[in-house]
Amino acid sequence: KDLVLDPKTRGVEDVVHVVQAAASATSFDRAKQFLVDVGAPSATAYGSYVELVNDPNVDIIYIATPHSHHFPQCILALNAGKPVVCEKPFTVNAEQTKILVNLAREKKLFLMEAVWTRFFPLSIEIRQLIKDGKIGDVKRVIADLSLCQDPETKYDDSHRMVNPDLAGGVLLDLGLYPLTWVYQTLYHTLPDAEKAAPTITGAISKYHTGVDIETVVVCKFPSSVGIATSSVRVATDPEETGYPAIKIQGTKGEIRVDHPAYCPTGYTIVPVGKGSKVERFERPIPAGKGMHWEADGAARCLRDGKMESDVMPLDESILIMETMDTLRAQCDFKYPANIESTEH
Ligand SMILES: NC(=O)C1=CN([C@@H]2O[C@H](COP(=O)(O)OP(=O)(O)OC[C@H]3O[C@@H](n4cnc5c(N)ncnc54)[C@H](OP(=O)(O)O)[C@@H]3O)[C@@H](O)[C@H]2O)C=CC1
Ligand SMILES: O=C1OC[C@@H](O)[C@H](O)[C@H]1O
Questions:
Q1: Are residues 119 and 294 in contact, defined by beta-carbon separation less than 8 angstroms?
Q2: 27, 34, 184, 287 — which has fewest CB within 10 A?
């Protein structure tokens, strides 16, 4: 639905999007109905992904399937010569992501992990505030995404959120967002020469299906530390009183970002010192859900002949996948061999 919105509704004049086709592996009718539901009834419907990736009128493919399927489906699209935007998490593990990145680079095709949060004007603004030294040297980031859902009643054990066969679990699904905040503030804002992979420690609690349901990741960078937490069961902001989802803490003050970490619409700058001038910024999404900004970013890359986005660089996607791999290895949490596999 965000793709069919007129970009002018968000002040964007330099790119437009056309939903050209959609595919369902389940049935042609499902694809057809999907196109009607999203407001693109005249686009082409396909009953298989192979037909979609071979459509010469399609410029780029957006993959939004369960995590377990991203790797083979990205390979399918790239091998058909199509640029790809793939939902988060990119793949089940970093080795799979590296294979995709190498394939895209070899074929000179655009590839991007669809982390919509990074493309929000609010995120861009906060990254600039950090680079400008607004809160001094940023030393610590604490970020959380916890949804306060009862998984026993909300999710059948086969649901992608809790099903190990679909690479379910909190870390890959929700944990990616607090990690995004840690990385986009403590890593992405640094000059390239100062970027270094963090050391990782953490903990997870498991659900009866075997996936993680509460997760804590501690990322120790050379001169800062980030803590990313996520849970299905507890709440980031239980009273809904605006308790911040993310605290970006610098030597001169902190930036507090609203819940939910995936699409925050406001933040507060709190300088150090009693009686200091607190500044509040509201950044509502002008129309749609806010997934259009990442689509605009991808469209600009295609238009300009870029092979990757500098907002969500491929090497940073790999690093974040490696972070999640490290934590899972420390906690002895593996997915079934067939979906961890790099065979395709
Ligand atoms: N950016 C964001 O805010 C959000 C991102 N996501 C991400 O989007 C992706 C999809 O999530 P979501 O839409 O909730 O997923 P769904 O479970 O709704 O599945 C999406 C599609 O994937 C296919 N699919 C579903 N189950 C299976 C299966 N068992 N095996 C093979 N294919 C299957 C189906 O397509 P078909 O008709 O072809 O069978 C289905 O329509 C995930 O990566 C998730 O993390 C999800 C929600 C929000
Ligand atoms: O990406 C996401 O953001 C919103 C959540 O509700 C969803 O489970 C997740 O996939």
A1: yes
A2: 27
Terminal CA-CA length for the chain: 32
Ligand number nearest to the C-alpha of 289: 1
Identity of the amino acid at 111: L
Q: What is the pLDDT of residues 53-110, one digit of tens each?
A: 999 999 999 999 999 999 999 999 999 999 999 999 999 999 999 999 999 999 999 9
Among all ligands shown, which has an atom nearest to the Cα of 172? 1
Q: Give buried/exposed letters for 212-231 (b at 16+ CB in 10 A, else e).
A: bbbbbbbbebeebbbbbbbb
- ∠ Cα 224 190 88 (to 5°): 85
* Ligand 2 interacting residues, C-beta cut-off 6 A: 173, 262
Of 200, 226, 212, 210, whose CA–CA distance to 330 is shortest? 200
pTM of the model: 0.98
- Residue to mutate, 96, 160, 165, 335, ligand 1, most ligand atoms under 8 Å from C-beta: 160
Is the shortest distance between the CB of 262 and ligand 1 below 6 Å? yes
Distance 91 CA to ligand 2 centre (A): 15
Tokens standing for residue 337: 């061999």
Can you tell me the distance from the alpha carbon of 255 to that of 248, in angstroms, rounded to the nearest whole number? 5
